[in-house]
Write a structure and sequence with these properties.
This is Outer membrane protein. The protein is mainly beta. It has one helix at 2-28, and strands at 34-44, 48-51, 57-60, 63-73, 78-84, 87-96, 99-109, 112-118, 125-142, 148-151, 154-166, 171-181, 183-189, 200-206, 210-219. The protein has two domains: 1-30; 32-219, Porin. It is built from one helix and 15 strands, in the order αβββββββββββββββ. The strands form two sheets. Strands 1-4-5-8-9-11-12-15 form an eight-stranded antiparallel beta barrel. Strands 2-14-13-10 form a four-stranded antiparallel beta sheet, with no helix packed on it.
């Protein structure tokens, strides 16, 4: 009898354990954990600067770029999105003590990580909000009329709001708005404009771009 009872208990425990494992497996299969999007993004800097020595302000051009992002869902509502893209901007110092100066161009590589909350509003329309941080790398600088120019790489932060509209179980379209807050220290070597004598012009530049994106996504 004791063996029968122990065997029955063991079978019950095994059945319960198998049930929990199956429930967990089914729960994990309820939704796809990964999303990938390809967007076209308009990058619109909201720039201003504090320029030493010659004063004035700075003008950084807009651009339109392709952007790739990957999203991982920890739950149906909480996700992390990694955003990848690079952009080129023309730079000009204007209304300085020596007039307007062409400062060439610079590329920005700002990988950004957002933590998102996805609202399950319906079967098709899926809005979300996010906050996060980025680290911007400035590269391939062209100095324009100056002898040289350097940009300090910098951390920034931002927020986003957007929504997905399902086309099928796997594919969807996406509309996304981001605002990044980014500041960098810039040094312009203007010795060639000063008769060869050393002249380094410092500037603290706020870029604070808006990013307006539209694209196609896939779940997997």
């Amino acid at each position: 009898m004791k063996k029968i009872i122990l065997t029955a208990i063991s079978l019950c425990l095994f059945t319960i354990g198998t049930g929990f494992a199956q429930e967990k497996e089914n729960s994990e299969k309820e939704f796809d954990r990964w999303q990938m999007r390809l967007r076209g993004v308009g990058v619109i800097p909201h720039n201003r600067a504090d320029i030493g020595v010659i004063g004035g302000n700075i003008d950084v051009s807009n651009n339109f770029i392709p952007e790739l992002d990957f999203t991982y869902f920890f739950t149906k509502n909480i996700a992390a999105e990694l955003i990848l893209g690079t952009t080129k901007h023309s730079v000009e110092a204007n209304k300085t003590a020596v007039g307007d100066l062409d400062l060439g161009s610079v590329y920005l590589l700002p990988p950004t990580l957002m933590i998102q909350y996805h609202l399950q509003a319906g079967e098709v329309f899926k809005p979300y909000v996010g906050v996060g941080a980025n680290y911007t790398v400035f590269y391939n600088e062209k100095s324009g009329v100056a002898n040289g120019i350097t940009y300090d790489n910098a951390f920034g932060y931002g927020f986003q709001i957007g929504f997905d509209i399902d086309l099928s179980d796997k594919f969807f379209i996406n509309l996304d708005f981001k605002k990044l807050f980014l500041e960098t220290d810039v040094t312009v070597d203007a010795s060639n404009l000063n008769g060869g004598a050393a002249l380094n012009i410092p500037a603290k530049v706020k870029l604070d771009p808006m990013l307006l994106g539209f694209g196609l996504g896939m779940r997997f």
